[in-house]
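step: validate -> pass
step: tokenize input -> pass
step: predict -> running
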Amino acid sequence: MSKAIKAILLPAGVNVLPREVEFTDWQDIREFVGGHFDAVSALAKSPTGDDVAIVGYVHDEGMLIGLDDNWLAMAIFRQPLVGDCLIVSGTNPVTGEYDGESYDVPEALRDYMLYDLVQRVSVGYNQTMVVSEALDWAELSGALSPEDLDFLEAELLRLHHEDKGLRDMNSRAVDIVNRSLLELKSFVDDTDDGEED
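step: predict -> pass
step: emit ->
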């Protein structure tokens, strides 16, 4: 690499914002991610419908040394990632092929990462926390059995391994989640009624 590559840095942790950066060589990548690095990749759709290879450089030993989770990068690459992540395009703008080199992040992807990604990840994270609390409460109140929870866990793992979304969830698993949310709502409603007395 000789010319500066336009990239997006996705910081690890919470209350973080992506930022535009430039780099010219592997030493710059090491500086951005804090050490030796590895690459992860995914395909994204461009506004024209073409596949674009997205490459993320992450600290090679981030999990071993206890770096913070990178919620933004996990949303893109759909796998556990820690530490700061430097995002580039892996698609050659001339040939349209993935060739192992780093290229500027396309403008539409840059805009998505800078303006929409944080919002989408925060909504997903908050929804996950609500469902997690509902499941905990439903288990404590006896509304869900250990078998229900085991089934739900197995179903979520299946979806993850098959790279499917919640829309593909089995109807029994949906029922378990709905029952837990109703149990939590009932508790909140009862608590609210008690405060008015």
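step: describe -> The mean pLDDT is 86.
step: cleanup -> pass
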